[in-house]
Amino acid sequence: MTGTKSKDQMTPNQPTSGVTPFITVAICTRNRASFLEKAVQSVISQIVSDCEILIVNNASTDNTPQLAAGFVAAYPQIKVITEPELGLSAARNTALSRARGKYLVFLDDDAEAEPGWLDAYRDFFLSPPVTNIACVGGAVFSRHEAPPPAWFRPGSDVLDLGDYPRPFQARAGPWGCNFALHREVSLELGGFDVSLGRKGKSLAAHEESDLIERIWRAGHEVWWLPAARIKHFVSAERLRLGWQLRSQYNQGQSSAVIQLRMAATKSRTLGLLFGRLLVAPFHLALNILLALVSLPFRKGQIAAPALLRCARIAGFSRLLLSEMFQSFSVK
Question: 200-239 as b/e, with b when 16 or more CB fall inside 10 Å?
Answer without folding.
Answer: eeebbbbbbbbbbbbbbeeebbbbbbbbbbbbbbbeeebb
